[in-house]
Amino acid sequence: MWEQVEQWDRELFVYLNNLGIERYDSFWIFVTNPTHWIPLYFLFFLFFFLAFHWRKASFSVLFLLAAVFTTWGFTNLVKGIALRLRPNNTPELLDVIRILQEPTNYSFFSGHASTSFAATTFVVMVLTHRTRWIYLAYIWPFLFVMSRIYVGVHYPGDILVGMIVGIIMAIIFYQLYLKSGRRLY
């Protein structure tokens, strides 16, 4: 059963990865780099400060950072246990996929997916009552995680699990945020 799921994951990865067009390689390489998204992170912080007084905004930023860094730590812990090779490090795939990056750490599950979905989901939950437009923030993590398949470093299953973990972590931290911050309202 598990072997069949891994086979489907591999086949879907090869299919999606091969949809890549060379002309767009530089775009996807740019998108996959977390440092290029730093202005968006500051925009998230700014949204908190525009929506709330400075104490609640600072409190929100701290919980957002706690959610992201906890998710990142948990992701790396699981990667160290699961030890799943990335597609770009899997010898039987090297001749059938496009590789634009070559990280050497493990694949399961995607840290890009888990942290970006944790951050976005937390921000959306905190700000959704202020503006429905905040849901547009989900464009970022979807582009971010799709880039990981395109550049050849994550299977779709890695991304799906990372998304789920990120969303769950955001919900947990949002609940803690609500309980801890009652006096700020």
UniProtKB/TrEMBL annotation:
Q: Which SUPFAM superfamilies match?
A: Acid phosphatase/Vanadium-dependent haloperoxidase
Q: Name one Pfam family in it.
A: PAP2
Q: In terms of domain of life, where is this protein from? A: Bacteria
- Give the UniProt keywords, A-Z: Membrane, Transmembrane, Transmembrane helix
Q: Does the keyword Transcription apply?
A: no
Q: Where is the Phosphatidic acid phosphatase type 2/haloperoxidase domain?
A: 60-174
| Bilayer-spanning residue ranges | 36-54, 61-85, 105-127, 134-153, 159-178
Q: Does the keyword field hold Lipid metabolism?
A: no
Note the PANTHER family from the entry.
AT30094P (PTHR14969:SF13), SPHINGOSINE-1-PHOSPHATE PHOSPHOHYDROLASE (PTHR14969)
Task: State the protein's name.
Answer: Phosphatase PAP2 family protein
